[in-house]
Specification:
The chain is mainly α. Helix content is about 75%, strand content about 0%. The protein is built from 21 helices and two strands. The protein has a two-stranded antiparallel sheet. The radius of gyration is 21 Å and the shape is globular. The relative contact order is 0.15.
Length: about 425
Amino acid sequence: MVATIVISIITFLLVTLSILFYPQIKIGKVRLGTYWIIALVGALILLAFGLAPIQEVFRELTANTSVNPLKIIVLFFSMTMLSIFLDEVGLFKHLAAVAAKKAGKNQYLLFCILYGLTALLTIFTSNDIVILTFTPFICFFCKNSKINPIPYLVAEFTAANTWSLMLIIGNPTNIYLATSAGIGFFEYFQTMALPTVCAGLVEFSILLLLFHNKLKLPLQPSEEESPIQNKAALIIGLVHLGACLGFLIVSSYIHIEMWLIALVCACSLLLSATLMCLFTHKDWHYLGESFKKLPYQLIPFFLSMFVIVVALNYQGISAKIAEALGHTSTIWTYGFSSFFVSNLINNIPMSILFSDLCSNNAAVYASIVGSNIGAFLTPTGALAGIMFTGLVKEHDTKYSFIDFVKYGAVISLPIMTATLFILGLATGF
């Protein structure tokens, strides 16, 4: 037991340090994230010494349950493919450019439009895709308009990680925790809709108070345009995303698992786009680019963290943690513990760990809130934070670790409190 605890803690600590100080290594022209390599080494050590028995890991990986990590990966990657395809077609950039043009010289109006657009797109796609798409646009637009990018970057990042609470597909952590508890798409939405709206309203109010003085300054009207080059591809992408969301809503009633629905829709999208490419003789580079941009490094990271959690369960450590958390004040205990643990070990391993700790659905929902809003506090809290800080740095925009934590603490703690309070009313805990 002691060896498992030591190896796990060292792995979590090194993952966090790698994200902060040495996030990537370069081999030739290929850049690899160090966080997943460290996690993989930690998992292999546990397997090599029998602390996570191979038979136990294999049994969990092949179990015909909705919480099977391979099914979770398929669901996440299928939904990500649908979102990235729409991004490659140019939908997100087009909407952002239209929003900037409509705002004219009014920063307040631009701020409100971009916040609303980020929230809307996050609900129907995912937080990671929106952050990958909007962060470069904001950096570029603010530099050209000679305005401070900080209000827009903070608003984009917090909105993406708040409104991702609305649907089960908004964040990989939502998928894992809810699926592990047998919570369906529609049941999840019914419970989380009101807390999410509450979180969004509190967040938006705080953002306006924080950045009121900066947003009073005028901006130069943007002439930036980003037209949709291939409307047929856009229609195909929107139809498949809409169909996927529709089937996910009724998945529990038609008794088809969510991962299978998402996989069929993603495969149908690829087939439709390929056929359209053959018939129209046009260069549909969107397909190749969509495959290139999939977050493949998430697979070894997710599976490695899964092995570590299997080891913790096998050694009885998870049971002791659950006992320490107790069964009273479920919403507040699990909400704030998941919030802080996310920033210690990242929200993906936190979700895998907490899926075995949660004693009821209220604890699951509270942990989901902590996993999403916990991303505000430090860049290590979520993969979204890692991607965000990397993109900001690439575009020569000054946004330090201290800035991230400063704004994150001011915004996240009130939102956590308000959201958990409404969640408590919604679940009766």
